Fold these 4 entries.
Entry 1:
Amino acid sequence: MAALPEACEARSVPSTQLRGGIPLFGMDADTALDVVTGRLGLGCPPERNLATFLTTSIEPEAQRLYRTYLNHNLVDREQYPAIDAMLRECVGIIGSLWHGEPHRVAGSATTGSSEAALLAGASLLRNWQERGATRRPNLVMGAGAHACWAKFCRHWDVEARVAPARGDSPSLDPDEVEELCDGGTIGVVGILGSTLDGRYEPIAAIADALDRLQERTGLDIPMHVDAASGGFLAPFLDPDLAWDFRIPRVVSINASGHKSGMVPPGLGWVLWRGEGDRNQGLGVRVNYLGGDDAHHELTFSRSAAPVVLQYYNFVRYGFAGFHAVHARSRGLARRLAERMRATGRLRLLGDGGELPVVAVTARPPVALRELAAHLAERGWAVPVYTLPPHLEHVEVMRVVVRSDLTPASVEELATTVEEFVAGAR
Ligand SMILES: *Cc1c(COP(=O)(O)O)cnc(C)c1O
C-alpha cells in the first residue's frame, strides 16, 4: 500500500481547507474509510435486489483471490504469463461449452458484453466491407436487442435495422428476417435470453431463415448470438438446444462472465468460431510491454481479477455445480412465476423456464408501479418498465432470480405479491 511520506502526515480530523477541489491535507485511512462508507452506504442487500442480472455476492475464498489479483494488469502478458495462459484456457473452455473446437476458437476477455458486442459488430462490419461494400451497412436485430447494439450501430455508423415487435413479444421473428436482410446486411443478431422478458430468441429458426434467403438470393449473412445472460446457463440447463457453434451460420457469440458466469462486475467474453471469422483488422500490435502481440480489445489496462475468478468458478463448481446452481434458480423462478400467474391478475411474459426471469404484465385493478412501490417499502428492488417501440403500451415488471437468492426470500416475495394483488381494488 502507498503510505504517505512522513513530511505529509495525514490528520485524524479531516481538514476543511480545500485545494483543487480536494482537502488540502489528507486524513488517516480509517477516517477516510468511514467518510466514504458513510456517504455510500451499501444500498439494497443482494438477497432483495431482484433488478440486476449481475453477480452480487461471492464466497470468501473468491474474495481472497479477487483481492490478490486486483492489482495485476490483465494486459501485461509478459509480466504475468500465467494469467494470460489462464485467460486463453478460459476461451478454450467457453469454446467447448458452446460446441466450438477448443483449439480453433478465437476470443477475448472484455469488460462486459457491451465491449464484446462492439468487437463482434466491428468484425462483422469489416468482413462485410472486405467482401466489396458499396452501400450503407445495416445490422438486423429484434426489438428486444440490448442498448449495446444501438451503441455499436451509432458509433460505427451502421443502420440498426430493428424488426418491429409482434404480438406482445419483442423477440426476433424468423419470418421477418428474410424481408429485413439485403446486400447491406453485415449480420443478424439473435439474443439468447432477452433482458426484457427472459425469453430465448429462436436462434436455430433464424439461421434456417437465413439459409432459405441464401438459397433464394445467394446472400450469405452471418449470425452473432448475444448470449449475455444465457451463455453460461444454456450449456448446463439446455444441452440439447442448438443455439451456438453447432449452427454453422453462427460466427461469433458473446456472454457476460459477470452475469450467469458468477464473476463480480467487470467481465465479458466474445468468441469467434475460428481465427478466420474474427476479422484480422481488429488486432493492433503492441510491443512496449515486452512481447509483440496483437491486442483485440477496445480497452487496455484493467484488473486481471475477474478473469482469475472466472477460472476459479470453472474449477470450483465444475459442470455439475454450474448445472445445480442454475437449475435451482430456474426452479425458483418457475415456482414464483406460477404463483404470480395463479393470482389471476398477473400475466406471464417470461415464466422463468429459459432465463430464470419472471416478467409479468398486470390486469386492472392491479397497477405494477404500485406493486413495485409496495415491494420497495419492504426493501425489494423490482423494476417496472415499458417494452420497446410498437409495444410501448405494455408495462412489465421483472424479477431476476439470481444464484444468491434463497428459497425463503423468493417465498416471501411471492406471498407479498399475492397479498398485494388480493387487496387491489
Ligand atoms: C446485460 C446484457 C448486455 C450488456 O452486457 P454488459 O455485460 O452489462 O455490458 C447485452 N446484451 C444482453 C442481452 C444483456 O442482457
Entry 2:
Amino acid sequence: MELVLVSLCLLTFTGKAFGDKPNQTPITIKEDESVILPCFFSTTLTDKRIDWKKDGEDVFLYENGRVNPSSQNEQFRGRVSHFPDKVKSGNASITIKQAKVSDSGSYTCVYLNEDGREEERQQIRLTVDGFKLLQNSSQIAFA
Ligand SMILES: *[C@@H]1O[C@H](CO)[C@@H](O)[C@H](O)[C@H]1NC(C)=O
Ligand SMILES: *[C@@H]1O[C@H](CO)[C@@H](O)[C@H](O)[C@H]1NC(C)=O
C-alpha cells in the first residue's frame, strides 16, 4: 500500500516536472473512462504515417493506409482506435478506452511524409485520475 502512495506522488511530480509546451488544452478524465485525444492537420493523411507516442512509448501507428500494431506498447494493446473515415480530411485523433492512471502523460501526434521525414507535430497532456485509489490512499495515510 505504501507503494501505491509512492507511485501516486511520483505521477503527480512527473506531471508537473515535464515542462513541455502542449499546444492543446490538457484533458483530465477518470479511470476507466474513454477519451478522444484530438489531433488535426490541414492536409490529407491517407498516404502519410501517423505516429502517436506517450513520453516516448508507442501508442498508435498508422502507415500504408492501415493501422500497424507491431510496435505498440503492451499497455495500450486493444484499447486504442482511430477514425479511419476522417484520416482523409486530416483528422488523426485517437480514442483510448478504459483509461488507466498509467495512461497519464504527454502525448505527441506526428505525421511523417513518404520519406519518413517528420512534417508536423501536436502535443496534448492527458491526466487520468485514479479516483478510488486516491480515496483509499488518503484513508491509509491518515489512519
Ligand atoms: C476529428 O474526429 C473526431 C471523431 O469523429 C471528432 O470528435 C473531432 O471533432 C474531429 N476533429 C476535427 C478538427 O474535425
Ligand atoms: C477502495 O476502498 C473501497 C472500500 O472502502 C473498495 O471497495 C475499493 O475496492 C478500494 N479500491 C481500491 C482501488 O483499492
Entry 3:
Amino acid sequence: MSTKLVPSLCPYCAVGCGMYLVVEKDKAIGIEYMTDHPACEGALCPKGNAVLEVLNHEERLKYPMKKVGEEFVRISWEEALDLAAYGLARNIKKHGPKSLGFLASSRCNNEENYLMQKLSRLLGSPHVDNCARLCHSPTVVGLGAVLGTGAMTNNLIDLQNSKCIFAIGTNFTEAHPIVSRWAQKAKDNGAMVIVADPRITSTSWMADLHLRINPGSDIDLLRGMMKVIVDEGLADKKFIEERTEGFAELQANLRDYSPEKAAELTGVPAGQIVQAARAYARSCASSLLYSMGITQHVCGTDNVKACATLALICGQIGRPGAGVWPMRGQNNVQGNCDMGGMAELYPGYRRASDPKSVEFFKAAWNAKDLPLGPGLTSTEMTDAALQGSIKALYIIGEDPIVCDANINKTKAALESLDFLVVQEIFMTATARMADLVLPAAAWAEKDGSYTSMERRVQWIDRAVAPAGEAKEGLWIINEIGKRMGLDLKGGSAADVLEEINRTVPQYGGMTRERISKVGGLRWPCPDEGHPGTDILHRERFSTPNGKARIASVENRPAGEQTCSEYPMLLSTGRIVVHYNSGSMTRRCPSLLERDFELYVDINPKDAAELKVHHGDMVKVKTLRGETQARARVTEKVKPGMAFMPFHWQGTNIITSDALDPVAKIPEYKMAACRIEAMA
Ligand SMILES: Nc1nc2c(c(=O)[nH]1)N[C@H]1C(S)=C(S)[C@@H](COP(=O)(O)OP(=O)(O)OC[C@H]3O[C@@H](n4cnc5c(=O)[nH]c(N)nc54)[C@H](O)[C@@H]3O)O[C@H]1N2
Ligand SMILES: Nc1nc2c(c(=O)[nH]1)N[C@H]1C(S)=C(S)[C@@H](COP(=O)(O)OP(=O)(O)OC[C@H]3O[C@@H](n4cnc5c(=O)[nH]c(N)nc54)[C@H](O)[C@@H]3O)O[C@H]1N2
Ligand code: SF4
Ligand SMILES: [Mo]
C-alpha cells in the first residue's frame, strides 16, 4: 500500500496554517510541512505539530449514545437521528419553535455552519449563535459600525511591511504563534513594536515599548494617544476629511482630556503615552493588532471602536503594512460569522432584524416563513433556559460547561432543559450533560472550507476515514432536517458551497476548484473572475456612503469592582500549548507534559502577604464560587492582580458573566477575587 500526501489545515486557531497529512490505508501516520503556504510558509506551532495525537486518539467518540439514567448507552445512527428529531419536534409542538436554541461550531467548516443556521431558521427559531459571542462579537458589531466590515483589513504576512506594530490586548506569540514570524520580520526591518498589556508576556518581551496598562483602561489609553496626535498636528487631515465623518465630535470628546489624565487612569506614564502616540502616528505604515484584552470587557464594543478610530485619524489603514488586525480565535470563527451563525445576522452579514434579509432567504430557501431576528445570543440563551423559555439545545463543537463565564449558571441552565443534543469528537464536560451524543468526523475526515482570520477561504478534501462510526456534521444536520420534514439541500459539502456562492456575496466567486489550491482565496470575491481581495478599504469603506465613522467613546467601569472582601483583580487567558476548553490539547501527551495543571500567577508581594509560596495549592474565590490552583509566584502580574489560564474547568467557575450591552460578550478579563493559602 502506498502512502500519499493530502493537503490539510491545522484545526486549532484562525491563523489557518496549512500542512500535509501523510496518509496510509485511510489513516494519517504523519505530517509534512507546507512550505508554500501563504500564512505560515510551512511553520506550525506546538499544537499544529501535535494534531495527530488528537485525530488518532483512542478516546474519540465512535458511536452515537443516549443517556439512560446516569449512563450512556450505545445506539444505532437510525435511532439517534430519530431521537434528535423527536426531541426538537416535541418542544416545537409544546412550546413553539422559539423554544429551540442552536450553537454552531467555529471548529467546523463553512458548509456545516451554513446548514446549521439554515436548520435553525427553517424550523422557525432565530436563536442560533456561536463562540464568536465569547470572543470577537465586539469586532463584528464595533468594527462593522466604524469601517463597514468587521474583519481583518490586511493579511498576516503583510505585517512584515509594517514600520510600527501596536499590539493592544493580544498575546499573539502564545495565541497565534506563527504571527510572531511576521512581526519579527518587521522588527528585523526596523519596525518599532509597542505592546499594551497589563502582564509581562512573551509578546511584551518582543516590544520596544511595553505599556503596562491597568486592566479595563484601554479607552483611556487610546484617548490619551489621540489627544497627543490631535494636539501635536500628527493627525492625517486629508484622510480624515476625504474618507471619514465624525471628527468634530471626537475633537470635542478630547477637549478636556490630557496625557496626564490618561496616565492617572491607565497607570502608564504620560511620557510613554506620548512616545507611543508619536511613533504610531508618524510611521509610514502602522498596524494595530488587538484581541481578547480589548473585546472581553463590558466596554468591549467601545474598545474596538476606539482602536479603529485611532487608526482612522492617523490614516493608518488601507495600505500595505497599515490597517487593523483583529486577531480572531478559532480556525473557522470568521467563516461561521460569514455564514450567519450569529443571532443578529443572516448569511453574508445581512441583518436579522431587516425584513429584506428575511425576504431574500425566503426566496433562496423556498421557505414560507423565516424568523425576523435578532435571536438570543448564546449568553442570553443561558438565562432564557433558566427562565424556562428555551427548552431544547442542539450544540455542535462547543464546550460551554468549561468555556462560559460563571459555568455554575450554565450548568443549571443545561440541567433545566427538556432536551440537549451534543455533536462532538470527544466526551466533553458539556457532552456528559446531554441526552444524546452524536459522534462527529473531525476536520481531516470530511470535505469543506474554512475561513481564517485574514478572510482566507481554504477547501480541504476528506483525507482519512472517520473514527469508528463518526459521521460528517453536514450529513448529521441534513438527516435531522429530513426527519423534521425539511430538505436542507445538504447532500454534500460541494452542494452547500454552491448555495453559499449564490447567497453570500463575499463568497460569490469561491468555487471549490478555486479555493482548493494552496492558500485558497480571500474575500470579498464576488464572482468567478475576481482574484479575491488582499487589503480592504483601499479607496472606500464598506459603509453605505463609503466613509468610515469615527467613534467618540468614553470608558465605563468594569462590571465588578475590587472591595475589602475580594481585594484582587482576576484576569484569565491563554497559554501556548493548550487550547480553549482543553478537550483536545489535554489529550495530547506532548502538550500535556509542558503544562499539566491549573495554576494562578500572583505577584511576590501579594504572595508574601498571603503567606503563599511558589508551588503551593491555593483557593481562588469570587462572588460566584471558589476553585483551586497551583500558585506561581511571578513578576508577570503586578501586585493586586492574578492571572489564570482557562484551559481547565476550574477557572470559569469563578469568572464574571457581566456583559457588554451591545455585543453581549462576558467580561472574562476582570473579576474581583480573593486568594487564600490552603492549610
Ligand atoms: N495557544 C492557544 N492559542 C489560541 C487559543 C488558545 O486557547 N490557546 N484560543 C484561540 C482563541 S478562541 C482566541 S479568541 C485567541 C485569543 O488570543 P488573545 O486575545 O491573544 O489571548 P488572551 O490570552 O485571551 O488575551 C490576550 C492578552 O490580553 C491581555 N489583557 C487582559 N486584560 C487586558 C486589558 O484590559 N487591556 C489590555 N490591553 N490587555 C489586556 C492579557 O494579559 C493577554 O496577554 O487565541 C486563539 N489561539
Ligand atoms: N475564562 C475565560 N474563558 C473563556 C475565554 C477567556 O479568555 N477566558 N475565551 C472565550 C473564547 S474567546 C472562546 S472562542 C471560547 C471557546 O469556547 P469553545 O468553543 O466551547 O471551546 P473549544 O474548546 O474550542 O470547543 C470546541 C469543541 O469542538 C470540538 N470539536 C473540534 N473539532 C470538531 C469537529 O470537527 N466537529 C465537532 N462536532 N466538534 C469538534 C472540540 O472537541 C471542543 O470540545 O471560550 C471562551 N472562554
Ligand atoms: S498558529 Fe494556529 S493554525 Fe498555526 S499551527 Fe498553531 S494553532 Fe495551528
Ligand atoms: Mo475565541
Entry 4:
Amino acid sequence: MKITRREALVRGGAAASALALSQASVVAAALPAFQGEEVIPFLDQPPAPPAAPGPWPLDQFSLLDWQNLSSWITPNEGFFRVGHYDKPVIAESDWKLEVTGLVRNPGGYRLSDLKAMPRRDVAFTLECSGNHGFPWAWGGIGNAKWTGCALAPILERAGLLQNGIEVVFYGSDAGDEEVRGNKIQMNFARSMSLEDAMSPENLLCYEMNGVPLAVHHGFPLRLIVPGWYGIANVKWLKRIEVIDTRFMGRFMAKDYVTLREEKRGAETVWNMTSIGRALVKSVTAKVTRQGSGYRIHGAAWGAPIDRVEVRIDDGDWRRATIGEGKNEAYAWKFWDLDWAGAAPGEHTVVSRAIDTSGRIQPAMDDPMLAGKKTYWESNGQLTRRIRLG
Ligand SMILES: Nc1nc2c(c(=O)[nH]1)N[C@H]1C(S)=C(S)[C@@H](COP(=O)(O)O)O[C@H]1N2
Ligand SMILES: [Mo]
C-alpha cells in the first residue's frame, strides 16, 4: 500500500484503535446463530471503505462480508483479495512451474505433473498483515481448505546444492518499479529461508475449497504457507529459485517491513523486520441475546491457540469456550462465553488469545504495538462497546 505513516494515522491507524476495533462488529453473523437468538449491535460500527478504488492492493470491494458468512469455511466468492500488480490470466497449457537456481536437476512441472503427486489438504486462515491497519480494512481475512502437493519433495527432488540457503518464489504478475533511478519491470516475489521452505505443511496449491483456484486467487498455482501472513502465500507461482544469499526484493525488504521503536536499557533501537509468521489474534464478533441470557462470540487465529479470555468492563479475564476449529492447527477457532448477570446499560467487551507457548495477544498500549510506526501486524486487543437494554 502506498500510504504514508501520516495518512495511516489520519485514516485511523494504531492511534485510532477505537475505530479499528469497530471493524470486528461485522464478524457478527459469521458465527452460527441459535434459534431465537438476537444479535445486539455494537455501538462502535465500522466506517465504510473508501468510495473510489485507491492505491490499495487490498481490494476494498472484496472484503469479507462477515454478516453473510454462515460457515466456518469462508465461501470462495466472499474471500478477500490482494494484488499489488496486474492479475494475470494464465492458460494452463501455457504454464509451467520452473524449479531452478542452486539445484542439481533444474526442471519444469506442468499442472498435471503436480496433480499426479500425493494430494494434501490444509485448513488455513489467511490474513493480510494489513488487516486492522486501517479502519475499513477489517475484512482482509478468510478461512479455506487449500489443496495441493507438498513443496518439500519438489525441492528435494531438484537436488539442493550445499550452498543454497534461501528459496525465492516468483509470481507471474509484474509491475513498474524504480530502484535508485532505475526504472524496471519486476515480478512479485517473496522468499523464505531453506529451512522454512522445507516445512512439511507448505503446499503448492491448486484448489481452494474443492475447486480450482480462481484467477484472482492465483490460478493455476499458489504457495500456501500455513502459519504465515498473506504476503508469503505467493499467487500465480511461476518460478522457484534457490539462492546462496538473502533475497531483498520489494516485498521482503522495502514494503511489508515493520518499523518499531524498542528500548535496550536507556538506548532506543529502531528495529526493522520483514513480515513473515502470523501473530496471535482474536476478535469479539458479536453479542447475542436468547431469552434473558447474553452470549459473547468471537474468533481466534494466527498461532496455535491455547485459550481465549474475555473481559467485560473492568472485570477479570474469563475463559471462553472454544468451539469450531478446536482441533485445527492453522485455522481460526470460534469461541463463545456466556455473559452471566449482564446489567442493562453500556459495557465494553475485549478478548485476548493466548498461544500454546504462552504468548498473549498484546493490549493496544503494549510497547510492541505502541512503538510500531507502520500499519502491518496490527494484532492488538480490540475493545468493543455495547448497550444492553
Ligand atoms: N503473486 C502475488 N502473490 C500475492 C500477492 C500479490 O500481489 N501477488 N499479494 C499477497 C498478499 S499481501 C496477500 S494478503 C495474499 C492475499 O491472497 P488472496 O488474494 O488469495 O486472498 O496474497 C499474497 N500473494
Ligand atoms: Mo497482504
